[in-house]
Design brief:
Blueprint lengths: L1 H25 L10 H12 L3 H37 L5 H31 L3 H11 L15
Helix pairs in contact: 3-4
Length: about 150
Amino acid sequence: MDMKRTMTGLLTAFLVVVLASQSLAWWGGGKPKRPSHDKRIEMIARRLKLTDEQKKKFLAHQAEMKKAMLANRKQVKEVGNKLKAELKKDAPDRKKVHARINEINELQRKMQIRRVDSLLDLRKSLSPEQRKKFRGMIGPLGENGHRDRHRKR
């Protein structure tokens, strides 16, 4: 009888674990999967119904932006590593710390300007109908210039 109860308990526990893991896998582990950068670019091109010429320019421009973003991230990481190294010192130099923070901010500011310029360049090449769709795709921006993901639409 005791063996039967133990086996039933083990079987129940096993089934609970299997079903729970399957449901988590099915639901994506609770985190929505964001499409890759390239898929998002393709989705934008498709939703805007870009002409072949527009799409070619758009994809070339986005490839250039992607390269610039990667270079920018690399620079920010390098400066960030220098900042961390300075902060790990027993007596960090406050001026060097501030200079590294300013350098990171400047790199990020330049990249943000480049992103906005990229959007403005794209908008110039769109028809009025496409621009209207594009503005809707960008959606309402919050006070900080980013989408408010928590606001109900």
